[in-house]
Amino acid sequence: CDVFVKKKFKVIGLSKSIKIKNKNLHVLKTNFEYLNTIEKKLSTIFKENKNIKYVILNAGSLGEIKKTNELKIKGIKKNLDINLFSNKIIIDFLIKNKIKFKSLIAISSGVSLNTKFGWYSYSLSKVALRFLIENYAIENKKMHFINCSPGLIETSMQKKIRKIDHKIIPSIKTFKEAHLNNKIQKPAEAAIKFYNNIPIMLKSSSGTYLDLRKIN
After folding, report:
1. pLDDT tens digit string along 77-102?
2. Distance between CA atoms of 27 and 215, rounded to whole angstroms?
3. pTM above 0.90?
4. C-alpha torsion 90→106→162→121, nearest 10
C-alpha cells in the first residue's frame, strides 16, 4: 500500500490491520476468517470504483507448523478460509460485477511448489491458491492472472517461524540461517521489487507462476 500510494495510485482494499493513513488509501478492516462478511465489504469499496488497474491478493495466514499427524482438521480449514476461499470470494465478486482490471496478482510462495517438514497446512493452502489462479486464467481468457512469489520477507510471520524449535521441525533451520545471513528482505525492499517487476508480470502469460527471486 505504501509504495503504491507514493507512486500516486489510489488504493482501495480490505485488510485485517490498517497502519497507513493517506487520502488516497481507502481500506476497510476485514477479518478474512469470516467469509460471509467479505462480499458486503467488497460492495462498499467498489461502489464508486469499477475500473481497477491491479488487483493484489496478499492476505495470508501461516497456520500451525507441526507434523501433519498432529494437525487438527479445524485448524487446516481455518487456514484454507483465509488463504484460499477468501480469495475465491473476491475474484468471483470481480467477475460477477464486471470489474475491469489489467492484472490480478496473487501472492504465492515457494511451498506451493515444494512442501517442507511440518508445513502441510500452509503448503496446502498455497498450492490450492496457485491452482485456483491457474484455473481462473484458463477459464477467463480475456482476463490476466498471475501467481507471484516474492521470496522471504521480514514480517511477523517470519518472527513466528523463528520461534519454533528446529530440533522438532528441522525445516525451520533454513529460515533461521537466512535471518542470520541477512538473506531476508525488508518489507519496503520487497514491495519496491514487486512494483518494479509489474511490467514483467504483465508481459507473462495469464496463469504464470513467477518467482521474483529469479528475476534481477
Report:
1. 999 999 999 999 999 999 999 999 99
2. 31
3. yes
4. 60
